[in-house]
């Protein structure tokens, strides 16, 4: 149970979330959230309990079509609550205090929130690394040091932005877990560890490395290294350079190679694979693509966010231009309609431009197994999506069913093949891209049942 005041606070929070995004041209259709108790401690009075609760929230939305219209996209985010519950005479508990801060993503901060008390209550809790960044990042900043990065590596852009995006989408929570105490299983901790309260920069560095940017090897055994960018990849987060794990040093390192620019009003200079920084430079996320309206979407740790829409009125104000020519213009809304199945696109009808992805959509007339594959000499990668899928957390839009690189023929090494058991009357999407952003050329695409 909760007090009448806290019940009213919950309504205010929901209204704030709706209004916060409405002011940015996004209409929320559905909000679904699930809390999980991370820590419970009986107070000295023995009649109350202090709780640390992790809450994951899914937001289904459209881009200005109205709250009564169909949702077209989904984003998710995490919140940590510091809660006090008092036991009544009947043994039940009533929540009397709920302290949390969502100003950056819902526009709401609870009346009970005190940043100092909150930091004390959550200190040492593993889930604190899900979204809190301000205090920890400030502790990592140099007090009085100025330098220019010396490395000559990584000055020619990202070799494979798609690999960067795949990594970013893999290693952030995307749905309710059975036990959210184990949230960090969604992080690549076996390789990179995680930094309690300050994992955002560690995560973005991992994404850049996955995209093909190279680590510096000089001084790669000194965690105080301020000039290189590296991680030992041994599961210990601090076995890395400051430029890998701390935003201020990260900016100094990469700012010596690429331009950090203000995000312009129409968001057209935010590209997939590029880091995106908060206005106070105390938080960093990474762009992973676009939603159906063309807004860039971002993933991040510290406040776990998945496919959060980036708008011109958002908490983020600048981006680092590592990638400047891979806007992935083609999206589901521009998908080619496959008229019937079986269907084969004629030879030399489809051309894959370097750095672009092509989309196709189809609706099976019969339930059964379907497959889509490419033929030709252009090295392709394929993804099969279901338009929507209802799960424990609500409806996930563009739910990935299958991914494949070289699956057409044994030893082929070029053509992709994706397939799954599909249902009549539902819409499915196939995305085709080159194995690397440099690949272009003609290819054939075959849709078939079986």
Structural class: alpha+beta
Mean pLDDT: 81
- From the spread of the alpha carbons, the general shape counts as globular
Strand coverage percent: 25-35%
Q: How far apart are the first and last residues' alpha carbons, in Å?
A: 53 Å
Q: How many strands appear in the DSSP assignment?
A: 22
Largest sheet: 10 strands, antiparallel
Kindly report the oligomeric state of this protein: single chain
Low-confidence stretches: 126-150, 176-183, 391-396
| Helix and strand pattern | HEEEEEEHHHHHHHEEEEEEEEEEEEEEEE
Question: How much is the radius of gyration in Å?
Answer: 23 Å
Give the count of structural domains.
3
User: Helical residue percent?
Assistant: 10-25%
Number of helices: 8
Q: What does this 3D model show about the protein?
A:
By secondary structure, the protein is an alpha+beta fold. The chain folds into three domains: 4-123, no CATH class; 161-320, no CATH class; 332-449, Jelly Rolls, CATH 2.60.120. It contains eight helices and 22 strands. The protein has helices at 4-22, 115-122, 134-140, 161-170, 189-192, 200-210, 242-245, 247-255, and strands at residues 27-42, 48-62, 73-87, 93-99, 101-102, 108-109, 260-262, 275-278, 284-290, 296-300, 305-309, 316-320, 336-337, 343-344, 350-352, 357-362, 368-375, 380-391, 394-404, 417-422, 428-434, 441-449. The strands form four sheets. Strands 1, 2, 3, 4, 7, 8, 9, 10, 11 and 12 form a ten-stranded antiparallel β-sheet that branches. Strands 13-16-21-18-19 form a five-stranded mixed β-sheet, with no helix packed on it. A hairpin with a 5-residue loop joins strand 9 (284-290) and strand 10. 43% of the residues are buried. Residues 126-150, 176-183 and 391-396 have low confidence and may be disordered.
């Amino acid at each position: 149970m909760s007090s009448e005041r806290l019940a009213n606070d919950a309504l205010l929070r929901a209204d704030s979330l709706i209004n916060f995004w409405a002011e940015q041209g996004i209409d929320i259709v559905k909000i679904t959230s699930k809390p999980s108790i991370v820590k419970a401690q009986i107070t000295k009075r023995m009649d109350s309990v202090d709780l640390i609760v992790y809450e994951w929230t899914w937001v289904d939305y459209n881009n200005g079509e109205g709250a009564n219209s169909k949702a077209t996209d989904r984003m998710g985010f995490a919140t940590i609550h510091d809660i006090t519950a008092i036991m009544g005479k009947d043994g039940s508990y009533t929540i009397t205090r709920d302290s949390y801060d969502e100003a950056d993503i819902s526009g709401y901060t609870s009346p009970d929130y005190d940043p100092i008390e909150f930091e004390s209550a959550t200190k040492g809790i593993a889930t604190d690394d899900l979204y809190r960044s301000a205090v920890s990042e400030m502790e990592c900043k140099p007090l009085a040091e100025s330098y220019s990065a010396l490395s000559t590596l990584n000055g020619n852009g990202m070799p494979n932005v798609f690999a960067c995006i795949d990594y970013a989408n893999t290693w952030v929570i995307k749905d309710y877990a059975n036990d959210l105490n184990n949230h960090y299983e969604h992080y690549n901790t076996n390789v990179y560890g995680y930094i309690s309260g300050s994992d955002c920069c560690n995560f973005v560095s991992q994404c850049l490395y996955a995209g093909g940017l190279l680590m510096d090897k000089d001084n790669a055994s000194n965690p105080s290294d301020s000039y290189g960018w590296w991680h030992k990849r041994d599961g210990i987060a601090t076995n890395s350079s400051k430029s890998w794990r701390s935003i201020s040093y990260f900016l100094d390192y990469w700012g010596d190679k690429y331009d950090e620019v203000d995000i312009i009003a129409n968001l057209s200079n935010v590209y997939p694979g590029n880091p995106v920084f908060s206005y106070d430079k105390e938080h960093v996320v990474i762009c992973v693509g676009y939603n159906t309206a063309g807004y860039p979407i971002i993933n991040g740790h510290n406040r776990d966010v998945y496919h959060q829409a980036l708008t011109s009125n958002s908490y983020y104000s600048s981006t680092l231009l590592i990638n400047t020519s891979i806007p992935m213009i083609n999206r589901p809304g521009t998908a080619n309609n496959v008229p019937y199945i079986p269907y084969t696109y004629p030879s030399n009808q489809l051309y894959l431009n370097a750095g672009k992805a092509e989309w196709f959509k189809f609706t099976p007339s019969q339930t059964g197994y379907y497959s889509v594959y490419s033929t030709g000499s252009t090295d392709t990668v394929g993804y099969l999506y279901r338009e929507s899928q209802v799960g424990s957390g609500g409806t996930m839009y563009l739910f990935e069913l299958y991914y494949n690189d070289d699956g057409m023929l044994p030893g082929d090494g070029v053509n992709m093949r994706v397939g799954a058991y599909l249902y009549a009357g539902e819409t499915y999407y196939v995305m085709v891209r080159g194995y690397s952003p440099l690949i272009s050329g003609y290819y054939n695409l075959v849709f078939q049942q079986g």
